Amino acid sequence: MNTESDKDRFLKEFGDDYGYPKAPKNIDEIRATEFKRLDGTVYLDHAGASLYSELQMEAILKDLTTNVYGNPHSQTDSSLATSNIVGEARQQVLNFCNASPWEYKCIFTSGATAALKLVGETFPWSSQSSFMYTMENHNSVLGIREYALSQGAAAIAVDIEEAAHDSGSTNPASSHKVLQHQMQRRSEARVVDEELIGDAYNLFAFPSECNFSGVRFNLDLVKVIKQDSERILEGSSYCKGCWMVLIDAAKGSATEPPDLSKYKADFVVISFYKLFGYPTGLGALIVRNEAAKLLKKTYFSGGTVAASIADIDFVKQREGAEELFEDGTLSFLSIASIHHGFKILNTLTISAISRHTASLATYVRSMLSSLTYENGDSICTLYGVPKSKLLCKEMGPIVSFNLTRPDGSWFGYREVEKLASLSGIQLRTGCFCNPGACAKYLRLSHGDLLSNIEAGHICWDDNDILHGKPTGAVRVSFGYMSTFEEARKFLNFIERSFVLSLSHSPLRTKYIHLPTEGFERAPSRYYLRSITVYPIKSCAGFKVDSWPLSSTGLLYDREWLLKSMSGEILTQKKIPEMCYISTLIDLNLGILFVESPRCKEKLQISLNSDLFMSARDGMDLHVDRSPERLPWTANSS
């Protein structure tokens, strides 16, 4: 009889990578002493925000209650102490990316998004410039496009993959090609090839790690763009001029920061709460000195000028990247705090953190991919698994996926998220502010995306399945303090909620095939106590002991929604008072009753009518059934 446990099997394969055997504390000791607040909680959203250590916060508190840090723009002893700690912090950030202080500067910003915005608004755009970016980019990177287009520049979205090439080639550009690109330009003027001169400045942006899929981009792209950009786009005229490269390392730096001694990117963006949880509201832009000289700063403020005169047009800006681009007083107490976060990373080492998190993600990815039905169809569709190591050397600590039923239809990602929450598991669903990667991996065409928007789909809503396709995915991500036990509890949740629940159905048992190893089969300890039906989205529901089902779930559940006079869909996030609107369905009478404390009479809606109109106590109601489950709208008048 095989008594080997799941963890024993895991350690047999990943024991050399899991945990921190060479650090002062191993992973179990770290969790027991520094993350006691996680007892009973499985936190799997480190791509959204990592967690701060309790000892880290104690060290920060001791630092701030022991030392006196004053405004660095003053001339006091306390301001000198602040200037010193800020200078040390800048050097720590540069060291983190192996960047020479003679070649790079560290500019502190209010976050990674502010760093990207700074590049966009100061870049020397012209009508001859191009902004090229990979499909897999965060919205904060896509926002740079607005600055480029407003100045008449071209914006080009590209999907880069490996090209067939001679394995003996030493040219990194021969390893890549553009599978597709979409060029945009707002200006009416057309720029012909002869007008594209060599001193036009272009910007190429890509993430070190895709926050949707976990794909890690090969940083050779920096060399490719700088040395042979015309070859990448097959001689396109939009590749002429001087190319500069921006790496969005906000996600990737937590496990693999870019090595700027090898890959001479011009701009690198970092977010500190992604690294060690605290502080939030602080990021950094690492900028190459030569690139900083080209940035065109317009606004000036306290701390960024050497001199100014109030009543005439005169200002003399400070020299040096940091002083010129850091508007106002720095968040110096937050900057003082990052020393304690870096201390954790340096103690464990980034290489060990990378191996540790990769072992968990690889294990989860492997177990999910092994779930199949009897006919060989996968239960789980994983996103981002690289086809080649030319573009992507390996995967980051992200697992992104969707689940399917035996008939091939999809489980909604919001359903997965809600059930996970009930099981004490915190994960993230949706497109993760990465629309290009979302469309690419979910195979959503422009027509699909526009159709979804017309159907009312926006970020963070509950429309997880539209026109038979998922609009987003489920994402779990691991951090330096994640454990095997958390990964195992997540897999047990998937098994219990989406695998065994199907196999218990007499109609579907024969279609289920579970992996022979890695899953514990335990009898369910969960029982259905009551059912709550919510006929109107974001309004109060009603409880029943039993209720009929439909092809979309509970009959009439979320069958209606409320809209404003302008057509905006209303939710409790926007109008919390909607929770006071109560509902009740009488199936025998075929009527939905709606009641509000602001209305004297109940509103009655016939469930069998295709159109119902009523006006009572200031409410103008329009009912119109549609196949998209948006049968009626209520407009307050």
Task: Describe the structure in your own words.
The termini are far apart. This protein folds into three domains: 1-52 and 349-527, Aspartate Aminotransferase, domain 1 (Alpha-Beta Complex), CATH 3.90.1150.10; 77-344, 3-Layer(aba) Sandwich (Aspartate Aminotransferase, domain 2), CATH 3.40.640; 531-636, no CATH class. The protein is α+β, with helices and mostly antiparallel strands and 637 residues long. The chain is 29% helix and 21% strand. It is built from 17 helices and 30 strands. The strands form ten sheets. An eight-stranded mixed sheet has the order 2-9-8-7-6-3-4-5, with helices on both faces. It has a four-stranded antiparallel sheet with strand order 13-14-19-16, sandwiched between helices. β21 (531-533) and β22 form a beta hairpin. Residues 42-155, 244-489 form the Aminotransferase class V domain. It comes from Ilex paraguariensis. This is Molybdenum cofactor sulfurtransferase.
List key phrases describing it.
single chain, alpha+beta, Aspartate Aminotransferase, domain 1, Aspartate Aminotransferase, domain 2, 3 domains, 8-stranded mixed beta sheet, 17 helices, 30 strands, 29% helix, globular, disordered C terminus
